[in-house]
Amino acid sequence: MEDVAAPLTGPLAEALARGRDVYNARVAGAQPSVAIDGEALLATLRGLDPVVRAAHGRDPAVVDTVVSALFDAAMELVPRGGLGPGARMPELEAAWRAVLGASGRMLCADPRRVVAATMNALTRLAGCRGARLGDWVTTMAALSERAADVDVWLKAGVVAAWRSGLAHARTGALEACAVLPADLAALAVGLDPTTTGETMARVIERLRVDPWAWPPHVASGEQPPLGIKLVCYVGGFRGFGAGGQFIAPPRVGLRDGVFIVTDGERVFELYADFFGATLIPVGPAHPGFGPSPARGALVLAGGGEVRHGEHARTFPGLASVTSWASTDLTLAATRPCSHRIALVAHSGYGL
Description:
Elements: H1 11-18, H2 20-28, H3 38-47, H4 49-58, H5 63-77, H6 90-102, H7 104-109, H8 111-126, H9 133-144, H10 150-163, H11 170-179, H12 182-188, H13 197-209, H14 215-220, E1 227-235, E2 251-255, E3 258-262, E4 266-273, E5 276-284, E6 299-300, E7 305-308, E8 311-314, E9 323-326, E10 330-334, E11 340-347
Antiparallel strand pairs: 1-11, 2-3, 3-4, 4-5, 6-7, 7-8, 9-10, 10-11
Helix pairs in contact: 4-6, 5-8, 6-8, 6-9, 8-10, 9-10, 10-11, 10-12, 11-13
């Protein structure tokens, strides 16, 4: 590998120069099956220069450790298309640089762990359609200035990921909220960090029982009028590079309180709440497999009418469905000529 420090100046260049022999040895010792493009690796490191400068500004003594962690991550991810000029998702690399640059306090505290954990979290977010990378980056930057240590910061990061669209992280996020300091839990769910512990306890309890509650309204005591609302559509056609999940119109059911969806080839778990909706693949569909049409208090009647107690509303698009299932607050329905699942909720939010 040629001298990777030459095109650079500043703390990153100096750290690479100090560790030149070590870094060259790491590249030379890479497995033969891993083709490391020196120019792509250098381009990735150059992109991380602002991260190193920010770390240097906070604690010059940790720069070598930070650069070592970044170098190893780049050496692993560039050949796999995770980073660098040929990255499959350039937005992932940009978000990673942003969160590391804005969370210098945590990065300097434990460089290797923070470098790896943030990339893992962003990869999960980027792999879920509709997840909001920018929201997670912004929240993590705010949390980094308040967290007592990296353990607490990463625990709050689970909550931030849920709020950024990972609906399937809901259970773990609520468990984290219950043990986090009130200011961190508040920030992570989108509330002011001065929110009291008593208010946060009330918010968490409400979120446990109502997936469609919005924390600011719960905290303030506001409640928009409840009704039957179309909250979103999930899924799509995956043929011809369309980017969806289903090769055929899916069917939906319920198992142990979780929506189960199949297109005949694969089976997914469907999670949805105020913050987003995710489809998580769980394996191939076995011959004859059909999800159970379990039903809760939210009911789809004839003609597309959805009922919940005294509330009722008709959706003409649901007059003809191939399957539906519901909990007490959420209903999922599939239609004969659509690769998308309609989600209807008993909520104060939606259309």
